[in-house]
Amino acid sequence: VNIEGISEEGMVMDFSDIKKIALSEVLHKLDHSFMIHDQDQEMIDFFNFSKGHKPIITSFIPTAENVAKYIFKLVDKKISDKYDTGLQLYSIKLWETPTSYAKFIRDDLI
Predict the structure, then answer these.
(1) What are phi and psi of 48, to 5 degrees?
(2) Pairing of strands 34-37, 55-58
(3) β-pairing, 91-97 with 55-58?
(4) For residue range 34-93, what is the model confidence (pLDDT) as tens digits?
């Protein structure tokens, strides 16, 4: 039976929708960019006078842990519970190297 708005296959979200969100909210916004804390005036001045860079001014110190939280919030806003399954983003894992990562879990949103 095919009922509009219900996935008869048990799918909670189509991978093509996940890819669109990842591209628009993460890759296109953050790829080849440089995050700068809004209190780091020396770096802000540098980027104001240099060309060809993509600075992102943040209200937080851009540690891997804080960037993982930032990405979580960007992506979480775009997740749609299309099939009314209670879908929510649970976590984000941000890899710094092949062996090091920071993970942000929804439960950390306090």
Answers:
(1) -65, -30
(2) parallel
(3) unpaired
(4) 999 999 999 999 999 988 899 999 999 999 999 999 999 999 999 888 777 788 899 999
The answer to whether the beta carbons of residues 61 and 37 sit under 8 Å apart is yes
Q: How many CB atoms lie within 10 A of CB 60?
A: 14
Using H for helix, E for strand and C for coil, what is the string for the chain? CCCCCCCCCCCCCCHHHHHHHHHHHHHHHHCCCEEEECCCHHHHHHHHHCCCCCEEEECCCCCHHHHHHHHHHHHHCCCCCCCCCCCCCCEEEEEEECCEEEEEEHHHCC
Residues 95 and 45: their CA atoms lie apart, in Å, by 29
